[in-house]
Amino acid sequence: MYVDNSIFPAQINDSKAIISDFLLAENPQHYIISLFLSSLYIIFLFPVGFIGNILILVVNLYHRGCLTAPDLYFVNLAVADLALVADSLIEVFNLKRGYYDRPGLCTFMNLFQQGNMYSSVFFLTWMSFDRFVALTGSMGRSIPHPRLSCCLIWVSSSLLTVLPFAITQRQHAGDLHFCFANVSQIQWLEVMLGFLLPFCILGLCYWRIARVLARSQKAQDSPQPRPRRQKALRMISGAVLVFFLCWLPENVFISVHLLRGGADGGTLWQDYPLTGHAVRLAAFSNSCLNPLIYNFLGETFRDKLRRSFKLSRSISGKYLRVSALISSGHATCCRANQSAHLGLNILPQNWANPAK
């Protein structure tokens, strides 16, 4: 994950992303276009990602007693996506000098983004592998102990973030302006473990899944209703497809930058700052689109959401009825007190003379 560190000294980091200064000083038109793209992201995608991920967490935690393994994985994925969506508020408007003028902020932001990026891709990969196991029957219906799997994914994501950070910080202990995100070895690690390796695993899993489904359809004499596990597979497949469509541009951009090696003294972020900003927005868009996939393709989630709305409407109806009864009784008492004060008798006869 690359950051705009044009303000750091040139002797500290080799790669210098000077998006902010170049956009603002050299080409104001590019700055305006980047600001426009950021505004579109904030207006249309950010609310969907922020509210959608919170809705996934609330609905599933409310029905936590009937969580399936894919639901549990999507809940953890929503946690990682929600963190990235919140972090994007600072990142997408990193167009002016000032956001990363402090190495501490640069390091914190990239640790945060890197850990959640790893967790997102690892959860998607594990979910696909779980569906592969469920459909092929290699290890039973699904991978056992999904809670343990989630814990291991979070631990591995944290280790892949913290260990390289600790090593590079130790190597640059005396560099007060050092930010580890611009180290080429860190970028290679992100591309290999955060994109290429998951891509190979996912490709193998879905190739085997496609073969199993093709054989099962040939073996069926009559059309059968689609099983629930295939619907879960469709939802996970959509999430994986959106993930790679969103993250592919940035990984290609970083790979070209690394392969070029800065031999001509510049970087792709210097030569194409507008493209660099656009691929970052595309990467963050993945965390905003996952709730839409979960909502439209996840039948289980839609059922839980409908039950939650029915329950809330039922509770609201009961509350309104109770409030109406209380208000009616309060109004009757008020009218009685007012009648007594004015010497009037507007209550029924048996109320005024209960003995009759």
From TrEMBL:
<dbReference type="GO" id="GO:0005789">
    <property type="term" value="C:endoplasmic reticulum membrane"/>
</dbReference>
<keyword id="KW-0206">Cytoskeleton</keyword>
<keyword id="KW-0496">Mitochondrion</keyword>
<protein>
    <recommendedName>
        <fullName>G-protein coupled estrogen receptor 1</fullName>
    </recommendedName>
</protein>
<keyword id="KW-0967">Endosome</keyword>
<feature type="transmembrane region" description="Helical">
    <location>
        <begin position="236"/>
        <end position="258"/>
    </location>
</feature>
<keyword id="KW-0628">Postsynaptic cell membrane</keyword>
<keyword id="KW-0297">G-protein coupled receptor</keyword>
<feature type="transmembrane region" description="Helical">
    <location>
        <begin position="115"/>
        <end position="136"/>
    </location>
</feature>
<keyword id="KW-0131">Cell cycle</keyword>
<keyword id="KW-1133">Transmembrane helix</keyword>
<keyword id="KW-0524">Neurogenesis</keyword>
<feature type="domain" description="G-protein coupled receptors family 1 profile">
    <location>
        <begin position="52"/>
        <end position="294"/>
    </location>
</feature>
<keyword id="KW-0770">Synapse</keyword>
<dbReference type="GO" id="GO:0055037">
    <property type="term" value="C:recycling endosome"/>
</dbReference>
<feature type="transmembrane region" description="Helical">
    <location>
        <begin position="31"/>
        <end position="62"/>
    </location>
</feature>
<dbReference type="InterPro" id="IPR000276">
    <property type="entry name" value="GPCR_Rhodpsn"/>
</dbReference>
<dbReference type="GO" id="GO:0006915">
    <property type="term" value="P:apoptotic process"/>
</dbReference>
<dbReference type="GO" id="GO:0032591">
    <property type="term" value="C:dendritic spine membrane"/>
</dbReference>
<dbReference type="GO" id="GO:0014069">
    <property type="term" value="C:postsynaptic density"/>
</dbReference>
<feature type="transmembrane region" description="Helical">
    <location>
        <begin position="74"/>
        <end position="95"/>
    </location>
</feature>
<keyword id="KW-0675">Receptor</keyword>
<keyword id="KW-0256">Endoplasmic reticulum</keyword>
<keyword id="KW-1015">Disulfide bond</keyword>
<dbReference type="GO" id="GO:0004930">
    <property type="term" value="F:G protein-coupled receptor activity"/>
</dbReference>
<comment type="similarity">
    <text>Belongs to the G-protein coupled receptor 1 family.</text>
</comment>
<dbReference type="GO" id="GO:0071392">
    <property type="term" value="P:cellular response to estradiol stimulus"/>
</dbReference>
<dbReference type="GO" id="GO:0000139">
    <property type="term" value="C:Golgi membrane"/>
</dbReference>
<keyword id="KW-0966">Cell projection</keyword>
<keyword id="KW-0221">Differentiation</keyword>
<dbReference type="GO" id="GO:0007399">
    <property type="term" value="P:nervous system development"/>
</dbReference>
<keyword id="KW-0333">Golgi apparatus</keyword>
<dbReference type="GO" id="GO:0030154">
    <property type="term" value="P:cell differentiation"/>
</dbReference>
<dbReference type="GO" id="GO:0030424">
    <property type="term" value="C:axon"/>
</dbReference>
<keyword id="KW-0807">Transducer</keyword>
<keyword id="KW-0539">Nucleus</keyword>
<keyword id="KW-0968">Cytoplasmic vesicle</keyword>
<keyword id="KW-0053">Apoptosis</keyword>
<dbReference type="InterPro" id="IPR047143">
    <property type="entry name" value="GPER1-like"/>
</dbReference>
<keyword id="KW-0812">Transmembrane</keyword>
<dbReference type="Pfam" id="PF00001">
    <property type="entry name" value="7tm_1"/>
</dbReference>
<feature type="transmembrane region" description="Helical">
    <location>
        <begin position="278"/>
        <end position="297"/>
    </location>
</feature>
